[in-house]
Amino acid sequence: MSERKYLTQIEVERLIAATKGSRNEARDRCLLLLMFRHGLRVSEACGLHLSQVDTESRVLHVARLKKGLSTTQPLRTEEVRAVKAWLVERKRMKPDTDAFFVSERLNQLNRRTAWSAIRRYGELAGLPLEAHPHMLRHACGYALADQGADTRLIQDYLGHRNIQHTVRYTATNSARFERLWR
């Protein structure tokens, strides 16, 4: 059997918890939470601009890459809290950019920096496999399927143009058969 390409919800929680006490705790916690909850690709997360994150209206404007369908998605309370904590820290840093996530050098966060941070947090969390950013996108798809979300809804949420890219999340979910043979 090939190595699993996603994290479970519990593993994502452990990954996020591993940011506690780190130098970039507020940024990295917010980054991981938004990547997981919104199925963001690492380049989509690193490419976020301040104007895309609206804590007042509690929405995230997701600009999908790879010709994906861009959407506006609700920010949940936990996400708003993480965003606000990061924005306080970001403001203190005084970066000269409208990039939402910035590095210690005050530039837009680089995808390689995000990659290495996620790998490091995975090790700190004691995850059974080497974590990488795309695992959070897959974790989002599987978590939505586990909650009973319809395949088309997951497709729209993740910005997939082709439903074949979405079916993987629902096809392996045994809960979809629960109502059969009653």
The largest beta-sheet arranges its strands as: 1-2-3
How would you describe the shape?
globular
Roughly how many Å is the radius of gyration? 17 Å
Catalogue the unreliable spans.
none
Distance between the termini: 33 Å
Indicate the proportion of strand residues.
Answer: 5-15%
**What's the mean pLDDT score?**
93
What's the CATH C level?
A: Mainly Alpha
CATH architecture: Orthogonal Bundle
Helix content: 40-55%
Order of helices and strands: HHHEEEHHHHH
Number of strands: 3
Broad structural category: mainly alpha
CATH-defined superfamily:
Intergrase catalytic core
Write up what this structure looks like.
This protein has 182 residues and is mostly helical. It has a single domain (9-173), classed as Orthogonal Bundle (hpI Integrase, Chain A). The protein contains 8 helices and 3 strands, in the order H-H-H-E-E-E-H-H-H-H-H. It has a 3-stranded antiparallel β-sheet, with no helix packed on it. Strand 2 (59-62) and strand 3 form a beta hairpin. The longest helix is centred in the middle third of the chain and has 17 residues, at 77-93. The protein is globular, with a radius of gyration of 17 Å. The mean pLDDT is 93.
